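== Folding the chain ==

***
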Amino acid sequence: MIPINLYISGFLSYRDPVELDFSTFDLACISGANGAGKSSLLDAITWSLFGQARKRDDSLINTQSDAAEVVFTFAYEGNVYRVRRANPRGKTSQLYFEILQPDQDNEQADTSGAGYLAGSWKSLTERSLRETQTLIENTLSMDYETFVNASFFLQGKADQFTQQRPGDRKRLLGSILGLEVWDGYRRQAADMRRAIEDQIGALAARLDEINRELAEEKQRKAHLKELDSRLDILSKSRLTQEASLEQITQIAATLAEQRKLVETLKRQLDASLQRLNEQIDRRDIREQERENYAGLIERAEQIEAAYQTWQVNRADLERWNETAAQFQEGQKRRQPLLDEINTERARLQQEHKSLLAQQEALAAQEARLPELKEQLEQTGQAIAAVEDNLARRVEMDAQLQSARQRQAEARAENPRLKAEMDELKARIDQLLVVEGADCPVCGQPLDADGRLILIEDLQNQGKQMGDRFRANQSLVQEVDESVGSLEAQIRHFNQLDKELRELAQSKAHLNAKAEQIEQARSAWEKDQLPRLGEVSSLLETDGMAQGARKLLAEMDAELAEIGYDAAAHDAVRQAELDGRSAEEEQRALDKATASLAPIDREIGELKEQIEAQQSEVTRQQSEHEQAAHSLAAAEEQAPDLDAARQVLFGLQEQEQQLRMEVGAAQQRVLVLDEQRKRRKTFEAQREDLARAVGHYKQLERAFGKDGVPALLIEQALPQIEAKANDVLQRLSGGGMSVRFETLSPYKDKRREDLKETLDIQISDAAGTRDYEMFSGGEAFRVNFAIRLALSEVLAQRAGARLQTLVIDEGFGSQDALGRQRLIEAINLVQQDFAKVLVITHIDELKDAFPTRIEVEKTPRGSVLSVV
């Protein structure tokens, strides 16, 4: 895939539309400050092709835009394609895929942002977004993960493979090559095998059940014969009991009629007894009334005298009631005047109480004045002391700034000294292992004396740097302590600022309180104190509401003339109340005199009715006793109908249960033939499933780590090794090569077998060593070569060609020598790619590339320019 044109609008930091034409360069660097939007260009390419980037769709839209849109035009396998992906905020994403059909006669300008291309575009967009995405991936022969791993050298990922432990490299290689899919196949095969084994287990359980049933054939037939015999006997017993129950039912019907007759006679007797009792009760009541009336007639003179006395008392009570009404009317007219006097007294009492409370509060406030003056004096002294301490803060701030400057200079120098010392140590280590060969640093012939002199010179430089490094460390520690002490003191001064503000506020508050007390005392002496004396005098002499008091005296004189005596009124009222029972007794006497003769007649009639009713009750009792005796004799001789029914029901239930058992036994005998047929079918199914389990076990072994994945890794390693050596020889001038070892002996010498591993052996002028023995520029060359080889093999396995290389490897993590080696490596492999893009934010590296794509962050978002 070779990029031709990239159009971006509303995507990540690119708010306004920008366009990048790739046709003007083959090698370029993308430069700009951190956060300017350099990596967003790569995100735009992957999002347009695969719908994936570092963030999700909603967060890909610029915060000031309504939609994100990317149009990417690229060449692949002799064709030119264009992909347009848009994501409106809150709406469904859009994806369009087109291919350019060359037109030899006409050329037309495309205005959609894809650049100026000859020909016309033919749509390849499918019916759904998912189908269109699948078509794009099939056209490129790559998905998102393959594309990123093959084409992009992301920051910090170049040595991801080589830095692993030897035992983990093989696993990681399988992951890079996408061999995890085989583990998925293995799990699927294992799941299928276990599912079939579960089916075999279920079939075995069914076969066991069938065999157990067939073994019971003889017992089942004997049991069926026994049940048939028992059913015949039970059916005959049931028929005999049904005939007996019919006779017993007829007898029971006759007894039921006799019971009805006895019940009828009993109801008639109960009704007669009830009427007799009612007549006796009425007679007793009338006789009691006659006795009461006779007693009243005997007391006639006493009752009439009491009645006359009560009438006299009632007339006296009516006269006193009229006098009391006149008196109450006068009392009602007095009440408003009394209320007025009481209201005025209550108001003066409340005012007097309030004035006394104000006097007490003022006295309490005046008692605090000496204390407030003392607090004001103490606060003024504290303010003066704090202001003296704050005068020293300016001097402390200057000392702190000076200490921080020394601290920053010492800390900034130590990382540089550390890097230089590490470089010197690496050079010394190389000189110590090289003997009788060219210098690995300068490339000049090096004898023994020259090597020792050079080593000593480098060691002296290292010692000087170490002394300077340790001196800086001591200085940093000393300055850190000084800075900490000064910062603590300044924090204390900051606390003093707060304390000064609080003291000033406290002083103002105290002054305000003292002034408030003085003002309150002046107001009291002027207004409230005279009023207190006036109110006290009125309350002591009871001199309030004089007008109401005069009217009240006049009304009291009028009431005295009425002559109302409340005690005499109460005595007459009580006498009238006590005599009211005389009226009731007089009425009862009148009623007794009129009712005595009729009651005597009614009592005689009731006695005659009672005698007649007693004769009728005697006759009915005799009839009921005879009928009940006959019923008892018949019931004693009658058979038990309920027992006979229970016996019949029991026989019927036993017969029904036995018939069900016979049917079940017949079914258990008949089902044996069907079970023999099922056994043959299940045995055939079990054999077929057992063969399938064997097949899936073979697939599990083939899909396991020792199967197809191992073969694929073994096939890929020579290809990776060859490509890595091709790149490494160009990077090292033919002085280095790499070899992969997949087997190594165990540390335990007693073991004759070999363990699986993936060691990286590097050969150079000093011999063959493990990758872990290399550092600096040599290790970087190995990392770069292996990573590039992995990318190319991954692309080839996907059926694609690696035509574009993007390196975002973090030049800032390399020193000057490391940056130069990386640029040399990029130039050496440039001929293998149609396009090479390098991302950096270091200004001094811009001139190392023929073309620069400069990205800048503006208030309107990211913009770019090609220089």
Notes: The first strand starts at residue 2 and ends at 9.
